[in-house]
Specification:
13% strand; 5 strands; binds zinc ion; three-stranded mixed beta sheet
Amino acid sequence: MTTHAKLNQHYQQSSEHNHSECVSEALGTAEQLCVERGVQLTPIRHKVLELIWESHKAVKAYELLDRLKPLKQAAKPATIYRALDFLIEQGLIHRVESLNAFVGCRCSGHQHEQLLLICKHCHEVEERPAPDVMLALLHEFKQAGFMVHSKAIEVHGICAKCLVNLSHLEL
Ligand SMILES: [Zn+2]
Ligand SMILES: [Zn+2]
Ligand SMILES: [Zn+2]
């Protein structure tokens, strides 16, 4: 497969998709997991998760507050932060440290290592499990005698969808 064909295939997978399916799947999984774990997905936590899932873009806490305010006038930053803490704890969202923003987790439900590909053009974040990369890193940490607390790797660049769009513009 040529690089361009690969890009196009990826473009179809990642962008020309029915996002409402992503949302209902993410919310459905969250509801089910919270029941299984005996934790409360309160209306406010549910709403914050839904707001994060409005897109695959990383979203900042104050943006969430802006979106929540029209629905819940009494919402304060602390309301958002408490909900975010819960959602992170339950592995339903990720904190994108380098952006100080949050994104819905596509493989919710278990703590996992992540490679986050962050597009500087559209701000979408793609999560990839990248087991080979993680294994190689583990080896490095061992060699360094380094105890790791957080193993998320955040890479900034331009996503396949934007690359395709940009290359169309150039033609
Ligand atoms: Zn989607
Ligand atoms: Zn994840
Ligand atoms: Zn992009």
